Model the fold of this input.
Amino acid sequence: MMTDRNTTIAIGIVLVLVLVLATAFVIPGQHGGEEKERIVVVYTSVDQVYSEPVFRAFENESGIRVLPAYDVEATKTTGLVNRLIAEKTRPQADVFWSGEFSQTIVLKNENVLAPYRSLSASDIPARFRDAEDTWTGFGGRARIFIVNTDLLSPDRYPDSVYDLLDEQYPGPSIGIAYPIFGTTATHAAALYSYLGKERAHDLFAAASKRNIRVVDGNSVVRDLVADGQMAFGLTDTDDACGAVESGKNVTIIIPDQKEDQMGTLVIPNTVALIRGAPHPAEAKIFMDYLLDRKRESALVDSGWIQIPVRDIPPSPCVNVTGIKTIPLPYEDTFNALQPAQKDLTEIFIR
Done:
């Protein structure tokens, strides 16, 4: 027969067990309790005004929080690439989303990227996808002239990169971003590859001697032209379209479109999975989302993309129908990048 003392002990044991079981269901994050927050870390060189709405929409749709790291305008893309290489042994990022391709190829060659073939990219043409699936390209931008229509009449509009040397335009009335960073560096590399080192060197050296203005980024070129401080400058379609759509007295000219001219550079966005990503499952979900054709169309509507790679209507800001592009594989432009940067550093940074 159970004594009062034994009864008390038994009741105590039961109460302790009840408390332990209750605690397992009440304390978040323990023994099957509340799930840990899902996150994805995205390093991006895409302007925050365009990339942030994509991140917020993804969060709302997926429930996965995006932790972005942005690059500064003057060192666009290059700064993040150096950071990713430095972090290679202990990756902090999951995804790299770039507004261009050459620095993404740098990361591939540095073994920073892991292969991933997204089903969302099945309708993207092969020329925009890495053969080893370490990166995928989608809609992008073109290199163009933005021209102040108050300062130049249509008969004086530039139509070739060689107009950087035309004496009818005072040197300081022309602008480019530093050609060792971002899309300006990529454009320069394409010129070095297509024209050859000697001819490309001569082009940029002569432009430097004319004292054309070299500024911190494509958006600065746009603003100086839009404000009438320069007559024209080389920039990207997204920057120029922003000025056009805001009612500035500017127009867009696609350079080198005549039959005997070389064409301009079209630069796709690229996205890649980081090797050893801390959150690989979330990274792939984000990449699938970004590479979906609906997102490409939305990025056209937002103004970031003007030239989609699928059969999606392009931006109405600039007529890119039949646009003539520099006839080079992206790898050729990439291979010219470092030699071009070295040469251009000697020309423009003394």
About this structure: The beta strands are 39-44, 65-70, 95-98, 113-114, 136-148, 174-177, 213-215, 232-236, 250-253, 266-274. Residues 9-33 have pLDDT under 50 and may be disordered. Residues 142-265+337-348 form a domain with the D-Maltodextrin-Binding Protein; domain 2 fold (CATH 3.40.190.10). The first helix runs from residue 4 to 26.
